[in-house]
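User: Modeling request: complex.
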Amino acid sequence: MRIRKLFIAFIISTIAAFSLGGCASMGVNVWERDILAKPAMQLDANANDHALDDHIYFSKEASSGGRGFGGGGCGCN
Amino acid sequence: MQLNGSKSIRGALATITAALLGSGAVSVADQGKLESSLLYYSESGRVRATEGIVNISKQLKGDRNIGVKLTLDGLTGATPNGAAPSSKVQTFTGASGSTQNVVPPGVIPLDGAFHDTRFAVDANLSQPWNRVTSSVFGVHFSAEHDYYSFGVNSGITRDFNRKNTTVGLSGSYSHDIVAPRGSAPVPFAFLPASTPPSEDGRESRGAHSTRPKEVFDVVFGVSQILDRKTIIRLNYSYNRTSGYLNDPYKILSVVNDQNSPDAGEPVNYVYENRPRAAGRQAFYGQVRRDLSGNTIDLSYRFFWDNWGITSHTVDVFYRWQLRGDRALQPHLRWYHQSQASFYHAFLVDGVAFPQYASADTRLARFSAVTAGLQYSLPITVGSRLNITAEYYTQVGDRSPPEAIGRLRQYDLFPRMNVLMFRLGFESGF
Amino acid sequence: MASSRQCEFNLREADHYWATTYAAMASPCEVLVSCKTRSEAEELASLAFQETRRIERKFSRYRDDGIIHSINCSNGGGVPLDEETARLLRYAGQCYDLSDGLFDITSGILRKAWTFDGREAEPDNDLIKSLLEVVGWTKVELRDFDIKLRPGMELDLGGIGKEYAVDRVADLLFQTSGLSLMVNFGGDIRAIGESTEHRTWTIGIEDPSEDDSAVKVIELTEGAVATSGDSRRFCHFRGTRLGHILNPLTGWPVTGAPRSVTVIAKNCTEAGFLATLGMLHGNQAETFLAAQDVICHCIR
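Assistant: Request completed. Predicted assembly structure:
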């Protein structure tokens, strides 16, 4: 439990550090986004593949959530 | 000063410019996208499924975006019904009372073969509010012959730091209806009660009695560009599901205790009993990096719920860019979960039942590994075909220490080897 | 000779392409080509640089060694034209017709009545009236291979010159190399790559009121982007901000125009023409551009 609490605290503080602009110097300028704009670098690509995987793992395992919503909408779990 | 109304001069302009320069085509990143996929799934020779998804999204005026997704899947086969193997033949009556399922000795019992089809529709609309904020609203409907789901979802995202940081919050609510074949059994009711009395004492009428389920989800996420080649994402998700959470077809064997002559042999069977609510949480982190034109993606999810399950998921893929805009992508996923506090491979006769119990191995302790390979190739400019093959296996405790009597001789965790083939086509329009 | 040429343009290697930058046509010029070797990049960069210089020398109003200068000093006499100039001027005349007179390369002389450095303008109506006497494409006699202007008239190819150069450089480089490339002269951009190893070039459109933040990011395999804007050159008149784009029919700057108009089209010449024409429509910019069915982006 303690380890889990520390882990949670770490994640929250990391998120806070990013979003509060503490890393305003981190990142790239507009004209440096060539690589990041490639299709292979889009985190939201391959929606269908993820949907199919999520459905399979939701019906075979007890975990859900993570990348997006917690799965569901089907009677398979 | 004004023109006589706004007429289109596009065609004439194209003609005169062509005379000046010569011809050329425009290929701007498309405003519409079609993605369709077909999955063929085969599990240990027991279950076969096919699933198809068609996903269309299109940009509308004002930078709005509309998306519609249709899913159709069909499932046939038999899955373990939760009972434990026995040295004798076991017979189970089908849910509607009309079929018999005979299980040979020493074999993990499966429920009777079933055939199920599911249809789902998802639609969403996204809308930018200003340069840095946008929201999305969606609806969901799905139906299979023993389960219906209606849901809505909504989300908002905001960019910071010259769009290097994106923060998003989204929530969804869904009202599901569980309508099992032969009505929802009373938890812990003994078999064979093919039409068990309903909870309020009256006999349930008709083939289906329904039970509701409410699902509420919220996800908070941050994505951050680290440098020209790296982007990371961190998510926290919370899910609360309440209502009828039992698997209406799953049972547990009640077996003779250690001291009896036939220790481990089944005396009776009962329907499972799960809590009426589940709270699930997960932390997820992902990093994707470009390595000289190839891409690596590594993600980790830590999950825990109030059923006592914690799990770890590590997922990695490497996209190897080949000539001609083709790519080869090996994929590896490792998963491990602990067991639910109320997971029991079987119950013991004469011992008081716990408050909740389920022998569904999806709640047991196991590790799982997925290994796959995807080949991606362009078909025309703006369209691609992806061919994927994956192998998934679960490894659980086949001989748990609590096994008694004859049960020590048998596998109590079913073999799970899955082959999956996926064909995906995506195209802009 | 070779070394002095080398100093006038920079060459740099990036992932999957080579980039050359130089200054020309009062703009930072950039040419990106997806070639593999330095020698190939040098050859193509040199070609791009020379072609840009050639067009600048020939068609710039500011230079005294080009055809436009000769025409502007002709004082009513006929000036013989080479094939390329004849084609370009004929195109300008067709643009005049298509825009019902709003797009007029003889209107440059109206700049003499205005100073666009942010100050409060004090327009001299008599001066404007006298300048309007020598403005108007209908007063130009353009024949197959020569041109005759009335005395006092001037041609100014701002609005098509740079865009034409972008297209010429891009086409020339593509014909020579067959490689995917992008040419960017201060925001007037042309990308070619449809039939090649499918290189997509990424372009960010800036919000003129906020540096360093892209309003929109476009991915282009083939096509062009041109922007017409007045964020840098403008004046004020009785509380209204006036951009530097002058209406050739009234002699005054256009009112109510967007701060910037960006148009995506087949080639830079078309895109530039539509962007300028969009601005010339003032309040009606969005309506006009919507009727043209082009992908465009107006920022107000």
